[in-house]
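Form 7-S
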Amino acid sequence: MSDFFEEEMFEPQEVQPPRRRKPQKKKKSRRPRGGETARRVLVAVPAIAFAIAIIVTPSIVFMLAMLVVGVLCLREYLEMAGSARPLAIPAYAAVAALVVAAHFGTSYNVLLIFAASFPVLFAFAADARHREGSTVSMGVTMLGIVWIGIPLAHAVFLRDLPDHGGALLIDVLVGTFVTDTAAYATGRMFGSHKIAPSLSPNKTVEGLVGGFVIGTMGFWFAGLYQNWLSGTDALIMGAAIAAIAPVGDLFESMLKRDLGKKDTGSLFGPHGGILDRLDAVLFTVVVGYYLAVALVY
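Output:
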């Protein structure tokens, strides 16, 4: 009897190995390819409409609008570069003075204001509260004045050109936004060769070419309704705008990456700040003004 219990109690039983669960395949989130493109268009169209509404107002109103834009842009930039302790008061004063000088004066007055900003920066940096790291502080502040103030002054110059200044400024804005949207759309659909992955990983050669071609034709198409702008001049201006717009975008991307920022601000919610929307315009409006003077006037 004891042998029987011993056999029953101590007889080894087969242990079945646990069943292996098949790894579940992760479901790929299906995001519509055109989703971001559509969002960009939804932001660009109201922005262009708002810009047109400002441009067709009297020139003094447009100048005041550029002052507001300058304050908003500079505020985002100063917050981004806060670790370098930029000098806010002379920066705001210089940008405002550049815009006002462009409207009430000439290019000579704008140059005079720009030159005067150097001793003003020195006066603020020499103060004991700002003396530490003053070289970097002055350099960062001057970059903001040049990047934001000079283009806004040229926007006023372009708008104040007689007869066709407002129309040319609208053409520049349309060409810039068409280039940006077309570059994103074509890059998303066909892009495979990166331009500058260390600066902007999403920029591709295919997007650059698509944006250039479509942006140029967008400017040319806008010129069809302006009998004072020849087709050749429209193509030249459109090509220049479409070529320089990505440079402005890459420049801002470089600054954001260096400063460890994803967006310049949150004025437009998920679409970033005002500098995120005007990064290309700050470059194209300068080129647009000088080409307008050279070709149209």
